[in-house]
Amino acid sequence: MSSNAPRADGRKPDQLRKITFEANIAPYATGSVLVSFGLTRVICAATIEPKVPAWMRQQGVKGGWLTAEYSMLPYSTLDRKQRDISRGKIDGRTVEIQRLIGRSLRAVLDLMKLGENTLWIDCDVLQADGGTRTAAITGAYLAARLAVQKLLDQKKLAENPLIDSVAALSVGVFDNRELLDLAYVEDKDAEVDFNIVMTGRGQFVEVQGSGEEATFSNDQLQSLLVLAQKGMKELHSLQTAFLTQQLLK
Q1: What residues make up the domain containing 115?
Q2: pLDDT tens string 63-101
Q3: Which residue among 108, 131, 207, 233 is the one 20 to 30 A from 102 at the CA level?
Q4: Total structural domains in the chain?
Q5: Is the pLDDT of residue 1 over 50?
Q6: Which residues are CB-contacts of 230 (< 8 A; sequence separation ≥ 6)?
C-alpha cells in the first residue's frame, strides 16, 4: 500500500482523529471532561477528597496524593465486557492502565502544593475504538485542571499545584506504514505499537512500545518518536484552547 494512501477512516498517516472535549459531564465531580478520540469516548472525572491515604499519615509523608481508577463499561466494546466486580478481581490490563494514568498526572503535579488532599481521577470508557488509555490521560489532565481551578477560586488552594500539562497518544506500524493515533482496526493488527506520554513542555513521561510478533529498527523507533512529537504539539494546542475557553467563563 502506498505510504500516502488514506487509512480506513480516510486520515493521512500523520493525522490525528477528530478530538473533542466537553466539560462538566459529571456535575458532582470537582472537575470532569468527556474526551473523544474519534469513536473512542472516555469520561474523565477529578474529585478532591480533603484527606490523604493512611500510609502517608503513618509514614509522616507531607503533601497530598493523586490516584487513578480506570474501567471499561460493559457496553463500551462490540462484545459485552464483564465488570471486574463480577469476576471478583481487577484484570491485569486495568491495573496497568490506572497506574499509568496516575504516574502521568503525578509527573506534572507538585504534591506539596496540593496540601493534605487526595485528587481522585476516575476514567470510564463509554466507547472503545483504540487508544482508550491515551484518551484517558489526555482527558484526566483537563479534568484535574478544572478541579484545581475550582479550589483556587474557592481559596482552598493557595497556588496551582499543576506545574505543566500532560497528554498521550499512540503511534505504530501497521501494514508497513508508520501511523499516528491508531484506531482499533489498526491497533489490533499493528506490527509495532507505542503509547507515548509527554508534557506540554515536550518532556517524555513514559514511552511504552513493543513489536507485535515483529521487530523494529532504531531508525523506525526514532521516526515513530518524531511522529508522536508532531501529534503531541497538536494535542497540547487543543488542550490549551479548551482550557482557555473554560477558564475565561
Answers
A1: 19-247
A2: 999 999 999 887 787 777 777 766 666 778 889 999 999
A3: 233
A4: 1
A5: no
A6: 14, 180
Residue 83, in any domain of the structure: yes
pTM of the full predicted structure? 0.93
pLDDT tens digits for range 176-226: 999 999 999 999 999 999 999 999 999 999 999 999 878 999 999 999 999
Residue 181 per-residue DSSP state: S
Q: Taking a C-beta distance cutoff of 8 angstroms, is the pair 62, 110 a contact?
A: no
**Would the pLDDT of 228 be above 50?**
yes
Please, are residues 96 and 43 in contact by the beta-carbon 8 Å criterion? no
CATH code of the domain containing 143: 3.30.230.70
In angstroms, rounded to a whole number, what is the distance separating the alpha carbons of residues 36 and 151?
26
Angle CA(103)–CA(187)–CA(205) in degrees, nearest 5? Answer: 20
Q: Which residues lie across from 71 on neighbouring strands?
A: 124
Distances (CA, A) of 32 to 54, 74, 123, 217, 239: 26, 21, 10, 40, 14
The CA angle 32-36-42, to the nearest 5 degrees, is: 50
Residue 3 lies in a domain: no
